[in-house]
Design goal:
3-stranded antiparallel β-sheet; 5 helices; disordered N terminus; mainly alpha
Length: about 140
């Protein structure tokens, strides 16, 4: 058991936690500014509120037993397969692919999520903390 706890602590300690502007630049370079009519500031706000910019964040506190993964907290019930709970696997990926420092898979999946009718509203934290708000502070000083 001690070995498992140690390995989990090492994995968390080695997670890439982006700085706000660093993430904004990465998202912009991968075409997220204006993706499905969502501004770059919306994506940065969403990432801040969902994972605090942590590429290896997970959340297991969902009522349906699913888990949220990665910088965007993409849900295993709908978007990825964690081999533990039922899934629609809309992004056709393993959830572990969302927990790497290379966020290109997470970005591709997030772009898929926003194609659905709920759009970016699929993320509860976006609706509670980003929707309809002045998000200019998320890009302030980033020299994009």
């Amino acid at each position: 058991m001690r070995t498992l706890v140690f390995l989990l602590l090492v994995a968390v300690a080695n997670a890439l936690v982006y700085e706000r502007c660093e993430l904004a630049r990465e998202l912009k370079s991968q075409g997220m500014d204006g993706s499905r009519s969502q501004s770059l500031a919306n994506w940065v706000c969403l990432s801040h509120r969902e994972s605090n910019y942590n590429t290896r964040a997970t959340n297991t506190k969902n009522d349906n037993g699913s888990t949220d993964y990665g910088i965007f907290q993409i849900n295993s019930r709908w978007w990825c397969n964690n081999n533990q709970t039922p899934t629609s696997n809309g992004c056709n990926i393993n959830c572990s692919e969302l927990l790497t420092d290379d966020i290109s898979v997470a970005i591709t999946c997030a772009k898929r999520v926003v194609r659905d009718p709920r759009g970016i509203g699929a993320w509860v934290a976006w609706g509670h903390h980003c929707q309809g708000r002045d998000l200019s502070s998320y890009l302030a000083g980033c020299r994009l």
